[in-house]
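Researcher: We're teaching a course module on how sequence relates to structure. For the next exercise, students receive a sequence and then see the predicted structure as tokens, so they can try to spot secondary structure elements on their own. Here is the exercise chain.
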Amino acid sequence: PMPWAPVAPPLSIIAAYSDEQALKLFTQGIKHNGQPPLPPMPGYRFTEDEARAVIAYLRALPAAPPAAATR
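Model: And here is the predicted structure for the students to work with:
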């Protein structure tokens, strides 16, 4: 079994990426740190136009509220 993250990060994580870093993630499957995303995230291979549309959409979403503290 894969050691998947116990919780998913908010979609606003894209806010931490520059447009160039986000474009590299969505077109080449390489995160800002040079590593591929961990499962269950896919190895993205969007076209540049598709990636730019996804980036614009994600940047337009409102910020997620802080996650509730776990006990």
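Model: If you want an answer key for the exercise: Residues 3 and 39 are 8 Å apart (CA to CA). The chain has a mean pLDDT of 81.
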